[in-house]
Amino acid sequence: MEIYKNPTAPIASRVEDLLQRMTLEEKVGQTNQLVGVEHFRHNLGVMNAGDLFRNTAQAIYVGCEPEDLEAWTQQGRVGSFLHVNTIEEANRLQHLAMQSRLAVPLLFGIDAIHGNAYCRDNTVYPGNLGLACSFNVELARRIARQTAAEMRAMNMHWTFNPNVEVARDARWGRCGETYGEDCYLVTRMGVATVEGLQGKLDSEADVMACAKHWVGGSLPENGTNGSPADMSERTLRTTFFPPFKAAVDAGVATVMPSHNELNGVPCHSNRWLMTDVLRGEWGFDGFVVSDWMDIEHVHDLHGTAETVEDAYRQSITAGMDMHMHGPGWVDAVCQLVRDGVISEERIDESVRRILTMKFRLGLFEHPYADEAKTMQVRLCQEHRRTALEAARQSIVLLKNSGLLPLDAKRVGKILVTGINANDENIMGDWSAQQRAENVITVLDGVRSLASEDAEVMYVDQGWDPRNMNPAMVERAAQAAREADVNIVVAGEYMMRWRWHDRTCGEDTDRSDIDLVGLQNELIERVAASGKPTVLVLINGRPLGIERVAGKVSAIVEAWESGMCGGQAIAEILFGKVNPSAKLSITIPHSVGQLRSYYDHKPSMYFHPYVCAPSEPLFPFGYGLSYTQYAYSNLSLSGEIDADGNGQIDVAVTVANTGKRDGVEIVQLYIRDEYSTFTRPVKELKDFARVELKAGGKKRVHFILTADKLAMLDGNFAPVVEPGGFVVMVGSSSRDCDLLKSRFVVKKK
Ligand code: GLC
Asked: If 0-12 CB within 10 Å is exposed, 13-18 middle and 19+ buried, where does residue 736 land?
């Protein structure tokens, strides 16, 4: 038996044995990723060459037929597919690969961003931005674990998640895919997701994760996806690098560079990013996969390569290992090697990295998934329960003038209306259409929790915010006058199968962040009825709702709350669940306030705006409950010296002074009083979810160590400078919500 086929042989030996058996074409074939054959076949009828340039989600290969992709697979010219959305197709393509000369199995990659939601009949959990509002790292890990199980049940081995970018601009349509604006929270959630997805990457329960997008695309020049990022190395290393470094330290298997250029160099041909930092400084030992046609864009967009071939050369030389995606890669790269432009040794490096992952995933021994068992895992009751639990913990109560929770016995007539009141859009971006019976809308949830003799009136505003009907707005306004309470479910539209109708999501960026269409008018007209009105938001970016915020009695920010979102929202509206979530991203008053984030530098608002507030509408870390919490007795003990030895023990008492049990997300921030380089007015350094019975209280403890105090010195090395540090602990990032104390790091 050849060594590479021997499951008991060390992986490194299997890799070397297989590598030396491969032709150049078979080697480059491993670095070649294509879109799935059914994806291709579907688009053949609906796309043309002109659609390709700006499309980052759908593709065809001009001049090719679906059968070509199958033939290339049999010839060992394909190493991976993405956007294969059924187990049947995955197994079929795998059979073709196993017929190749060396029978090297394929890697199937998919954007499983919140469950394997991009495929039908899978559990759809809340999106990342909402999940981060739970501040529940264990929950993120559990969701990732369950997602891995559902992926492997479909013979999928690799998700292009977590998106560990730090979101800084609400105009950007992909905020919802990130874990928010704070580096520390993004880091914690990202690492937990990598760990949940990958386990030890040594079993059939594991899938590869992908830390993306590397780097800077979440602070786009004009808020649009892929536009230039231009920032100092200090900003990069302080705010945008740490989540990626932590993912690498957690063993993330792959990294995906960002569409954008960074400081004049496209990320896809950026050696500093893909090799010097990732591998040289951090020791990354996985592989780098390009984003969608972005190597070609080094030539046809960024203009730093005169030919596609030179773009390939630049990217591979800079550290790229796998090409997403297209038919020209294999022949072009083989020619670059034959012409001596790229060494075969460099190709071998990439092939080793890719083969190592295939062996670690056990694909040579288990190349297929069992179609008879696939639905035993997918959508199982345990996963549905987790999706519901996650939705409950992700929904933020932003305003409540006493209307909520509703007393089902006392609301005889309820109006439900709004574009997101009864639509699968509640699942959020990166979702395939799911069976209607598996998606609980807000209307479904309200109907199930309203009392039996209550009348739930529904006025359908359609799903499309751009094409709302004024007559239906008027009809809702009339119905509102009859209701005891009005629920308007507004927000953004994210469904990919109506790609151009979306208002939020990938490549769906805006120059404003207000409610699209007649939504403001709808909310105002309903609220003008004089009956109490609740605004529920389903959205993937912070929305500038200042025009209506003061006109409604309550605001519930539900984000993209997944297939159980409607139930969780209704449970919160009717008080079955006490909301606990806190904002993972600032909600500004308007687009004019951008960029708006809590960990700003001291001079950011030295001169406040005139004619408009400077504070955000709702700040990072903010969220209400149906009970009240009181913080007292913040104490610090211990010390940290200038060598970074020691620790500060932080303790605070949190009491539940209300009448309902609840969970409080206690947040710990620091402020370095004086530093060689400017530092933010506060920085989140720890948090804890604290369960508190009504009337109960707990002493909550944190430990501050030097790494949590450190900044980067002039050489970007971490340093703890002597001097005073303020510790702030409380219920949000607002100063008025924080208890403060102080300690000093003594000079040597
Ligand atoms: C897109 C996205 C990336 C995704 C990839 C595959 O362009 O930028 O996040 O993983 O294509 O869908």
From this structure: exposed
186 is written with which tokens?
A: 């993004």
Pick the atom of ligand 1 nearest to 294's CA: 7
Q: Compute the half-sphere exposure of residue 303: CA atoms within 13 Å on the CB side of its CA.
A: 1
Residue 56 Cα: closest atom of ligand 1: 7
Dihedral angle, C-alpha 172, 178, 181, 186, nearest 10 ° = -160
Q: What is the pLDDT of residues 87-139, one digit of tens each?
A: 999 999 999 999 999 999 999 999 999 999 999 999 999 999 999 999 999 99
The DSSP call for residue 589 is: S
SS3 544: coil
Q: Tell me the catalytic residues.
A: 291
Cα 566 to ligand 1 centre (Å)? 28
- Residues 672-731 have pLDDT tens digits of 999 999 999 999 999 999 999 999 999 999 999 999 999 999 999 999 999 999 999 999
State the pTM of this model. Answer: 0.98
CA distances from 61 to 50, 55, 248 (A): 12, 13, 34
Ligand 1 centre distance from Cα of residue 56 (Å): 7
Distances in whole angstroms, Cα of residue 438 to Cα of each of 149, 498, 562, 706: 19, 20, 10, 48
Reduced DSSP (H G I as helix, E B as strand, rest coil) percent helix, strand, coil of the chain, to 5: 35, 20, 45
Q: Which of 222, 300, 243, 232 is nearest to 266 (CA)?
A: 300
Q: 140: part of which helix (H) or strand (E)? A: helix 137-152
Nearest to 439 by CA among 144, 120, 146: 120
